């Protein structure tokens, strides 16, 4: 399908706006029925973008995410409403709270030291050897 310059400019403008907060080239391309490579090349030719490093987590606007989260929206609702990826919203939330947003918080934090016991059932204190006492 041959696109007009105006259509290419529109795709590039939309892609630039969506790529910065965390959308992938493939996600953007799916909305236009073209390839991720086409969107990337078209956008880079028209906009000054910095590529995200491989594996780097995109970060959405932390204040916006926190405000919407406090209003009771889910991560998916925030991502859809703002056109960001789910991971970008999640990363922003974790950045703001300095803790992973997970359904299973007990897997993230270690148990209190007063509950941990060694093999003999004695209380475990990090950095202190049981034999030293």
Automatic annotation (TrEMBL):
InterPro entries: WH-like_DNA-bd_sf (IPR036388). Residues 95-133 are annotated as: Disordered. Residues 113-123 have a biased composition (Basic and acidic residues). This is Transcriptional regulator. The lineage of its organism: Bacteria, Bacillati, Actinomycetota, Actinomycetes, Micrococcales.
């Amino acid at each position: 399908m041959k696109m007009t310059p105006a259509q290419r400019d529109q795709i590039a403008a939309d892609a630039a706006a969506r790529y910065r907060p965390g959308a992938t080239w493939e996600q953007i391309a799916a909305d236009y029925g073209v390839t991720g490579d086409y969107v990337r090349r078209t956008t880079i030719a028209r906009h000054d973008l910095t590529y995200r490093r491989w594996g780097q987590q995109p970060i959405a606007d932390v204040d916006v995410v926190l405000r919407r989260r406090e209003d009771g929206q889910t991560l998916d609702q925030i991502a859809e409403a703002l056109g960001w990826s789910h991971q970008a919203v999640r990363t922003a939330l974790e950045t703001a709270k300095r803790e992973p947003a997970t359904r299973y918080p007990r897997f993230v934090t270690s148990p209190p030291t007063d509950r941990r016991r060694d093999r003999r059932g004695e209380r475990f204190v990090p950095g202190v050897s049981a034999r030293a006492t």
